[in-house]
Amino acid sequence: MNTAEYSGYLPELCPIWTASATYSPSNPGRIYWWNSRYECSPKDRLKDFYRWSAINWRRNSYDKFDCRATSGVTTTAQSTTHSTTTTLSSGTYQLVQHEILTSRASSYEVLEFLGQGTFGQVAKCLKRDTNEIVAIKILKNHPDYIRQGQIEARNLKRLSMEDTDRFNCVRWYESFQHKSHICLVFEMLGQSLYDFMQDRNFSPLRLACVRPILQQVAKALTKLKSLGIIHTDLKPENIMLVDPVHQPGRIKVIDFGSATHVSEAVCCSYLQSRFYRSPEIILGLPFCEAIDMWSLGCVAAELFLGWPLYPGHSEYDQVRYISETQGPPPEYLLSAGSKTGNYFNRWPDSTYPLWSLKTLAEIEAEMGVKSKETRKFIFRSLDDMVNIAGLDATDLLDRHEFVDLLKGMLTLDGDERITPLQALSHPFLAHLGQSTYHPPRSKRLPVFAQMTHRLCTFSEQASAVPVALNMGTHHSSGQQNDGEPS
């Protein structure tokens, strides 16, 4: 098989990747994509939109997975054997450029492949009757993903009855079946927060930029909570900039493929990406919408630091990092958790404490895997975040208020964690919009990018009072579910 190949490299982020596209000599106007397995950079691979849903590649876990990309135009592709099948052995639909996907109400022309993940793939499409550009998520033809797609469609249908623009959730248009594959049609959005941070080399954001993002996501979670919906996978990849040029600073929450109703919440290790995974899920406790607030707290800290607060290489690392910064979970939570014994030793003869965190040596002996230090900042408490270098005197009050809100969102007991509505009333968010600073616009940069370049950077070399480790390795956003199905 001859292929047209492209290789890209992003220093300190991931290995070189190669992507290929082919076309049929009998019909050179049709480009075919097929499964290959490569390690690749989302920046090189994806364009314009849903990198959120298109990949399962995550920070500090360079697992190989299906990766697809086009070589550009059909005339530059080289010939290969024409494939007559539309579904690959993995269950993935074999997309064809300019193919027409038809629902009962509309038809869509496939313009461009945007990427793929465990669930399937995402394509940029033209809605032919209105010439509107949309994104279509095409799920694999597999019972698990069909069932997940039905759940996602149900959640999206319920959300579509609300004003999604007002509550900062992605707009869903319809779902339909194409050749036994479930297709979900969404509005086209801009880049994710992760990609935005990556484009800035993960420079920390000033709180003036963190505040509106946090406020908008909290508003989205307020609506989800009122509907009894738990997102379960909130992270920078699933928070999208709507339009950096025409709507600077506007964001929307996306990807409801893992969402569940609170009445159907069942604890399992597949919920929440690891860096944003709440104590309830790690310990195997009953949970509710409060797990999304924990994730939001982790996202807020990451935007402020330019690095994940708890970038654990394993669930044990997550527990260890949390315990070293915030103290261990309360005894009553540890005693109630079905998975507590994985990470803690119980001392039945002791009156207090009953539980103690297992040592690194014990974990390595039990699991045969060495723990890795992946933190850039090691805090003795969340209050230490106030003292990070690069402090602007005008930021001092903001920092204290931000950390106070962060402590509310990262409360270890989900029942005591601050709610989205309470967060919106917190002083850090309540005075949103009082800033009088208006950055100059640039013809070369989108407004939001210009704003963040001028307004949202610490000093050139931001360093922390706590120890900074592992400085030679960039993170890659959002560790996804320990490599498990999303």
From TrEMBL:
<keyword id="KW-0723">Serine/threonine-protein kinase</keyword>
<dbReference type="GO" id="GO:0004713">
    <property type="term" value="F:protein tyrosine kinase activity"/>
</dbReference>
<keyword id="KW-0547">Nucleotide-binding</keyword>
<protein>
    <recommendedName>
        <fullName>non-specific serine/threonine protein kinase</fullName>
        <ecNumber>2.7.11.1</ecNumber>
    </recommendedName>
</protein>
<dbReference type="InterPro" id="IPR000719">
    <property type="entry name" value="Prot_kinase_dom"/>
</dbReference>
<dbReference type="GO" id="GO:0016605">
    <property type="term" value="C:PML body"/>
</dbReference>
<comment type="similarity">
    <text>Belongs to the protein kinase superfamily. CMGC Ser/Thr protein kinase family. HIPK subfamily.</text>
</comment>
<dbReference type="GO" id="GO:0042771">
    <property type="term" value="P:intrinsic apoptotic signaling pathway in response to DNA damage by p53 class mediator"/>
</dbReference>
<dbReference type="Pfam" id="PF00069">
    <property type="entry name" value="Pkinase"/>
</dbReference>
<dbReference type="GO" id="GO:0004674">
    <property type="term" value="F:protein serine/threonine kinase activity"/>
</dbReference>
<dbReference type="InterPro" id="IPR008271">
    <property type="entry name" value="Ser/Thr_kinase_AS"/>
</dbReference>
<keyword id="KW-0808">Transferase</keyword>
<dbReference type="GO" id="GO:0007224">
    <property type="term" value="P:smoothened signaling pathway"/>
</dbReference>
<feature type="domain" description="Protein kinase">
    <location>
        <begin position="108"/>
        <end position="429"/>
    </location>
</feature>
<feature type="binding site">
    <location>
        <position position="137"/>
    </location>
    <ligand>
        <name>ATP</name>
    </ligand>
</feature>
<keyword id="KW-0067">ATP-binding</keyword>
<dbReference type="InterPro" id="IPR050494">
    <property type="entry name" value="Ser_Thr_dual-spec_kinase"/>
</dbReference>
<dbReference type="InterPro" id="IPR017441">
    <property type="entry name" value="Protein_kinase_ATP_BS"/>
</dbReference>
<dbReference type="GO" id="GO:0005524">
    <property type="term" value="F:ATP binding"/>
</dbReference>
<dbReference type="InterPro" id="IPR011009">
    <property type="entry name" value="Kinase-like_dom_sf"/>
</dbReference>
<dbReference type="GO" id="GO:0005737">
    <property type="term" value="C:cytoplasm"/>
</dbReference>
<keyword id="KW-0418">Kinase</keyword>
